[in-house]
């Protein structure tokens, strides 16, 4: 459900047997909703954060953080258990015990900020021990969420049982359909939304209000549960109506963005009814270049071709079609060269003219060079700059660059090394710099 950025569909499987070594590999990042980041060693080391990447491995002591709307799916080896890291959260994988004495495995996420979901498979011995600033909690064969926004701890279960060990307070537990809230003082509520990650987001915001007493918190949470269930009912009714009309549904396509270096366009396809199929195609300059089948609503990356082209992205079925048109330029990172004609350092001997008062001795020369880019396409260039002795004498940008062969008349000084620096920058960011020197005798 990455499509809707809903965290209830993000998955993470609990660890299968691993060898205990320094920072053993725990699993892979199996889904990312930007912005989301990973740090190798510390949640506090700002210099170590890098963008979380789909398919990348992660290990013990790694820390993860997400921004507003972000999420990370972490998949571990083993059974089909899952964990999720929600938006605006910071979580570290601080410990992993391979054998808890009964041949099972324990993983210990530390929630520094925010909340996360879990779905630990039943009839497996593997265990998850959470810790937050307010309490620790332990689960086996359980589905739900757990979080701590600094003002209040909260957790809810769809099924299973959650044992909670608050700081300086007696332990307690909750079961199927129950939610616990509090800090120092805790309340257990029976709610229809218990364990639902969409409701966890509402709780995270609601319980951040420091002005609420415990009784006011309980009342606000019970009311929020009722409102949330009503919204789910409305969505369900709308989905049922849509399903009834699916024979008349036309798939819709929406262009969102593109990557000019990787040569991919990002589109999303909607209104693909369950049990039906749509065809998604890419037309470039009037010619189809690719086609795939789409069986559900989803975002999709589509390959582009090098250069600037007119694209039409088309989604269609037996009922009709929709399309989006864009003129896009694709400039993959490809090395190129600049050839300067003649010797790199040329000595020029020009007899001085008879001295004439008021007439300056000008020596003219033609600086000639050729830019050798792939496909010989000047539209792939971002900027061409020529400097004479450090001063810019010519600069062209983007559409100003009309050819790749340059013949530039220049004026030279006597008894001087006239230096010309040439810089050519590709739209991919790749740059080539070279120089030419004309040394004129007295």
The largest sheet, given as strand count, sense and whether it forms a barrel, is: 15 strands, mixed
End-to-end separation in angstroms reads 77 Å
Indicate the overall shape: elongated
Output the structural class. Answer: mainly beta
What's the CATH first level of the largest domain?
Mainly Beta
Helix content: under 10%
| Average pLDDT taken over every residue | 85
- Unreliable parts: 1-22
Q: How many separate domains?
A: 3
Reported by name, the CATH topology of the largest domain is Jelly Rolls
Rg is 32 Å
Helical segment count = 2
What is the name of the CATH architecture of the largest domain? Answer: Sandwich
Find the count of extended strands (DSSP E, 2+ residues): 30
**What fraction of residues sit in β-strands?**
over 45%
Task: Write up this protein.
The protein is mainly β and 442 residues long. It folds into 3 domains: 2-243, Jelly Rolls (Sandwich); 249-330, Immunoglobulin-like (Sandwich); 337-440, Sandwich (Immunoglobulin-like), CATH 2.60.40. Helix content is 9%, strand content 50%. It is built from 2 helices and 30 strands. It has helices at 197-206, 214-244; strands at 25-33, 36-39, 50-51, 57-59, 63-66, 71-76, 82-85, 90-97, 106-119, 127-131, 135-148, 153-166, 172-174, 178-183, 185-190, 252-259, 264-270, 278-284, 287-294, 298-303, 307-316, 321-330, 337-340, 345-348, 363-372, 381-388, 391-397, 405-412, 416-426, 431-440. The protein has a 15-stranded mixed β-sheet that branches. The protein has a 5-stranded mixed β-sheet with strand order 24-30-29-26-27, with no helix packed on it. Helix 1 packs antiparallel against helix 2. It is elongated, with a radius of gyration of 32 Å. Mean pLDDT is 85; it is low at 1-22.
């Amino acid at each position: 459900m990455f499509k809707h950025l809903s965290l209830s569909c993000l998955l993470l499987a609990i660890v299968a047997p691993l060898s205990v070594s320094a920072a053993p590999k725990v699993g892979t990042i199996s889904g990312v909703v930007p912005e989301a980041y990973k740090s190798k060693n510390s949640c506090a080391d700002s210099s170590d954060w890098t963008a979380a990447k789909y398919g990348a491995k992660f290990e013990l002591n790694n820390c993860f953080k997400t921004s507003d709307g972000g999420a990370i799916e972490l998949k571990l080896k083993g059974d089909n258990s899952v964990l999720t890291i929600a938006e605006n959260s910071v979580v570290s994988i601080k410990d992993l015990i391979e054998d808890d004495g009964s041949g099972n495995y324990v993983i210990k996420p530390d929630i520094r900020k925010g909340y996360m979901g879990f779905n630990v498979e039943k009839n497996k011995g593997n265990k998850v021990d959470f810790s937050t600033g307010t309490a620790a909690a332990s689960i086996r064969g359980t589905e739900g969420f757990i979080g701590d926004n600094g003002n209040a701890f909260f957790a809810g279960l769809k099924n299973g049982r959650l044992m909670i060990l608050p700081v300086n307070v007696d332990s307690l537990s909750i079961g199927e359909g129950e939610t616990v809230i509090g800090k120092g003082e805790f309340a257990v509520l029976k709610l229809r939304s218990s364990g639902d990650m969409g409701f966890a987001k509402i709780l995270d915001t609601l319980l951040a209000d420091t002005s609420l007493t415990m009784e006011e918190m309980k009342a606000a949470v019970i009311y929020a549960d009722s409102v949330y269930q009503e919204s789910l009912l409305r969505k369900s009714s709308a989905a049922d109506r849509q399903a009834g009309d699916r024979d008349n549904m036309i798939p819709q396509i929406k262009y969102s963005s593109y990557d000019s270096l990787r040569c991919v366009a990002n589109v999303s396809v909607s209104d693909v009814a369950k049990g039906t199929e749509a065809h998604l195609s890419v037309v470039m300059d009037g010619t189809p270049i690719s086609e795939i089948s789409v069986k559900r609503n989803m975002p999709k990356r589509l390959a582009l071709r090098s250069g600037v082209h007119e694209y039409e992205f088309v989604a269609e079925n037996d009922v009709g079609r929709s399309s989006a048109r864009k003129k896009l330029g694709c400039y993959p990172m490809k090395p190129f060269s600049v050839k300067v004609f003649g010797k790199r350092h040329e000595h020029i001997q020009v007899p001085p003219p008879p001295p004439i008062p008021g007439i300056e001795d000008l020596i003219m020369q033609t600086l000639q060079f050729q830019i050798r880019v792939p496909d010989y396409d000047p539209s792939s260039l971002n900027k061409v700059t020529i400097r004479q002795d450090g001063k810019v004498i010519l600069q062209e940008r983007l559409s100003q660059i009309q050819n790749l062969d340059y013949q530039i008349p220049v004026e030279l000084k006597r008894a001087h090394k006239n230096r010309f620096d040439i810089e050519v920058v590709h739209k991919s960011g790749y740059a080539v710099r070279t120089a030419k020197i004309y040394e004129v005798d007295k």
